[in-house]
Amino acid sequence: MSLPALIEAQNLIMAGDIAGAEFALANIAETEGDKALVAALDDFPAKDLLAIIREYDASKESLVNLLVTPEQFAQAVVLERRYGDQTHEQLRGMINSVIFREGADPAEFLYEIAEVEGGYDALVDYLLDRAPMVEHFYKYATFDLYEYGDGAKTQAQEDDLMNLDRDTESLASPLDMANLEDHDWMQVTYLLRYELPEIFREVLMKLRARYKAYLASQQSDELEGGESEAEEDERPKNNDDGDDKDDEESAL
To answer: CB neighbours of 142 closer than 8 A, spacing ≥ 6?
Structure first.
């Protein structure tokens, strides 16, 4: 049975040997079959599964990434925030490596992520760096910020998020459609917008709030920096007053 292999994998993760832990899990599939590994992952702690999935390597296939179910993956991915990665690069990489694997249904994975507590925040983290383009796509069906929608192309207004589930016809531009299957944020945004509109509505609302807070923080930092420079300018300069005094005394 797979129990000894699971225990071995957990011990290896505790010891910091992530590659060894992944090998131990992969050995289950090799000796007992893929279904045995899938079943075993149901009993594998989500935090340990995350530790393995985080170590994705685009240059090689991971058996765990290839077999993890949407439900198992969702339970793990929401724990990513514990790592405190402000860039969210690891989050984007591991989501892309799993949901866009061959034969997978990315929308199913996105749905399951949203179903887990903290799932919406994980999706917002994934899209945060692209917030202006996600917003633009929502309004104008294009990611091109220099292309502004007209009355015929605009699909929704900022205050009309409640009607997203009634508006499912794609009007994406030819340029966007050509780049859509990027196995990255564009494709995720498209899937959320047109296949999971209710989830997209919640994600977009959170994304707006988070991005607004980010801009406010940036502006505050810039103001503080400006005040520091102004204070520096107002501070009395060292003009070697002592030398001036000596010059006055010598003149007298």
So the answer is: 136, 149, 153, 172, 173, 175, 176
